Structures are given as structure tokens and as C-alpha cells.
Amino acid sequence: MIVQLKDLPVVLLLLSGVAFSIYAKKLTVPAAFTGLICGLLIYLGAGYAGILMLTTFFLGGTIATSWGRRKKQELDQPGDSVKRNSGQVLANSGTATLVAIVMLIFPTYRDMLMPVLSAGLASAMADTLSSELGMLYGRSFYNCLTWKKDERGLDGVVSPEGTFIGIAGALVISTIYAAAEGFHTAFLIIIFAGAAGNFADSFLGAALERKYMLNNDWVNFLSTLFAAGLALLILVFFR
Q1: In terms of C-beta density within 10 A (0-12 exposed, 13-18 middle, 19 or more buried), how is residue 1 classed?
Q2: DSSP string covering 45-56, please?
Q3: What is the distance between the alpha carbons of residues 218 and 172, in angstroms, rounded to a whole number?
Q4: What does the pLDDT look like over 172-195, one tens digit per residue?
Q5: Distance between CA 237 and CA 178 in Å, rounded?
Q6: How many domains does one find in the chain?
Q7: Residues with Cβ < 8 Å from 154, sequence gap 6 or more?
Q8: How much is the pTM?
Q9: What is the domain extent for residue 194?
Q10: Model pLDDT for residues 27-70, shown as the tens digit of each residue
């Protein structure tokens, strides 16, 4: 049996999260149970550090999305929906869940894959915080393809303030990783890959989402996948 008695506290914590998410209308019912499955797999593959990173991302993203809601509406930029659906859950945590499954199948590669999983969540955290808080606190906004000034809140538009907020978000996830696994090179790799994934999200938004070639969920998933792949590449060839 994969789930053992010692895992019961985490299972109860995840079930409590499902109940709270539905009651507080942070997730739809299917999204809450999708998150439960993702959370359980991430815990089984990455342990307490993995579930803590996922929980931190969920809470941080929820707060950032709700933060300044009235001002966002005044700016005609309401941001992401506070009540997220299954597609949004998978878009942000799907990469980490896939890596966790690989860790379960090939446990001998856990030490190498743990930073990869963390990089995917760092990218999701960086993107959510930079987009939701950057539109509130940014002063100058630029198209990430042309670097010309552009309209706040449009796909692929970035600000210096939002970029730094995103890096701070990646730093939070990397710090959780380091607290569990130790402060070494991977700590910096996760921050770098998370920030790079955030930029990849903006790039895909400007290049493809504006042209309706990809929707936001695919942009989010591909950017986290890019961050995880970049972290793996660095770990294999440059560590």
C-alpha cells in the first residue's frame, strides 16, 4: 500500500484543504479534488518539503489574487479568477505532479529531481505573484517582445516591480527546498529557473496567447515545464 498509517496526518491536512477551498470558494469542487490528488502525489514523491511548497504556492497565490481586488477592478484588470478550476490547478501544479510521479517510480533519482520539482513550483509562484501584484504596484509596463511601453495587465506585459516580486516568490520556494535539503547550488538554480519560467510565461503570453494560439492554462503549464526542464539541464550538465 502506497499510503501508510504514518501518512494519515498529511491526508487529513489535504482533506481539510479540500473542505476549506470549497467552503471559501477558492476552488471549484472538481478543482479541489484535483488539488487533492496532486498534493498526495507530490507528498508521496517529495515528502513534507514538497507538500509545504505546494501549500505555500496555493496560499500565496490565493492571497495575491484576492489582494487589491477592488483596485484591480477599478483598473479594469480583475486578474485571475479567485475561484480556480481544475485546468488552472493542473496548469500550475501539473509539472510538479509529473516530476513527483517520476520520483515515485525511480526513487534513486530523488536528490536530482527534487530541485526540478521545486523549480516548477517556483515558476508558478513567481508568475502568480508578479502578475497579480505587479499590476498593482508596477509603474512602467513593457511588452516583453518589443520592450516598448504597453498596457498594464495585457498578456506578455511586464514591469520591473512585478519582475522583482516574482523573483521573491521563487526565493520563497527555494528557501523551503533548502531548509529541507540543505543550502547548496540547487538553491540558486531553483531561483534562476523559477525566474526564467516566469519570463517564459510572459514570452508565450505575448507571442502566442495574444494571437489565441494558446490559452492561459497552457501558457502556465508550459512555463512551469520550461523551468523544470531548465533546472534539470543545469543540474545534469553544469552542476
Answers
A1: exposed
A2: HHHHHHHHHHHH
A3: 24
A4: 999 999 999 999 999 999 999 999
A5: 21
A6: 1
A7: 143, 210
A8: 0.92
A9: 5-237
A10: 999 999 999 999 999 999 999 999 999 999 999 988 998 887 77
